[in-house]
Amino acid sequence: MKSGKSYITFENVCVDFPVYNASCRSLKKRLIQVATGGKLNTDQEGKVVVRALDGISFKLVEGDRVGLLGHNGAGKSTLLRVLSSVYHPSSGTATIVGKTGALIDIALGIDPEATGLENIFVRGGLLGLSKPEVKSHLADIIAFSELGDFIEMPLRTYSTGMHMRLAFAVSTLLRPQILLMDEWLSVGDEGFRRKAEQRMVDLVEATRILILASHSKELILNTCNRAIWLEHGKIRMDGPAGDVVAAYFDR
Questions:
Q1: Rounded distance between C-alpha atoms, residue 40 and residue 55, angstroms
Q2: What is the Cα–Cα distance from 57 to 40, expressed in whole angstroms?
Q3: Between the N and C ends of the chain, which has fewer C-beta atoms within 10 Å?
Q4: Residue 10 in contact with residue 93, Cβ under 8 Å?
Q5: Residue 136 and residue 142: Cα distance in Å, rounded?
Q6: What is the Cα–Cα distance from 228 to 213, expressed in whole angstroms?
Q7: What's this model's pTM, rounded to 2 decimal places?
């Protein structure tokens, strides 16, 4: 791990997505009707853009466990993608110091024609792990996923549950300083779910900063000490988790 403190600072961050072929009035009118999350604007060249994040400012420090609240399209996913450096601000400044890991799409990169073993290395590589690092955890991944001899079989022969157990076992190898999550991961039957829950708790406890997007009141209250409520790409409220959850769910 890198030495030094981990922190995140956003200063007036905006994210705009250009809308191509939006010159006709009927299309503009339709866009206005469907753009519930973002806000339609025009850039300096007169092109139509949807503003997904609008003037976002906050600072997160070690020990922050932040719940992201907001309706679908409020900007939560866009914010997570900026935090994971998938998107970059159109304006403003996003400073992220610390190794970041994202548990957003745990099945990303999985090849159904490859064996479970081969997929472990593919998924591990996508997570930024070297081949020796994956090898050092191989026995643990296979044991945790409970796949046995199926680890040598193509993934297309797996049930959905087996597929998810393997993806979960690889993805939770990460021990990042900053952890991004889109809902809490819970997979498998009752027995495996208990193991998975404990691994998730251990992962969250080990991280320095947590950002968790969720629609669950109980999850935010049980996991987070702070919450940010997004509405139409702006921060409507930022404060102690209990206060923000009460304001959001008691509307």
A1: 15
A2: 21
A3: C
A4: yes
A5: 12
A6: 9
A7: 0.83
